[in-house]
Amino acid sequence: MATATYKKRPLWLWILLFVAALFLSVLGYILIASGFDVSDSFQHPAWTVVFVAIVLGLYALFVRLLEKHWPTDLSLGKLLPHTLLGLLVGFVYMVLVVCTIIATGCADVTRNGFSGEQQFSEIMMFLAVAVGEEMICRGVIFRWIDERWNTGVALLVSALIFGFLHLPNDNATWWSSIAIAIEAGLLLGAAYKWSGTLWVPIGIHWAWNYTQGNIFGLAVSGTDAGSTMLTTTVNGPDIITGGAFGPEASIVAVLFGALYTIVFLNNRYRR
Asked: What is the pTM of this model?
């Protein structure tokens, strides 16, 4: 994805443009999100679609104006297969994490009633979250650092930023932020590098949050996800269950996330 012209920019100019890109993408995401009530998306599903289209459209326009090319990581030809792959990876990942915690005897699951209307609302909300966060953390932070230096630096920096962006969340700790950096920041960066598109990390992020919160009824990064299909009651040590922050602060999630990261990177470099 890198170009020779892009790499030859003076460091001071690269830093200036990087900070500007990061600021504008975060500001744009916040301003757009403030104008949409994604929690009401079942009654108005088009609003979430419009929100996502505006966020991705502004990202594409920004890349075109600043970098003089259209973003290859928004390939429409790969939108469906890569998103579906990401959804599968995210779903399987969280099922493995929660089932492992249950198998250790540290959690019990009970069944709730199902509301299709409420579940659809939560699905649409997490779509908006995934698109916004992946656009910033992978589309801007990871990609720019990767193009200027290398993938190792991009993985480390983007993962740490992504992890510690969750530090202000309810029940967050330094450990939970480090855990997210390892299990999610590295994984999503590796998935982006492997696929060359934002669609795979968006799909992983989307399914990860929804499965964790609205299927299993666990906290998503310390936040109550709302309507759930199941209720999972944890009763073991926080290092295994993640405690009040949710399974993302579990060593189980860290280990599975690290494994997934290795698989993506191994396949990337074998190709």
From this structure: 0.90
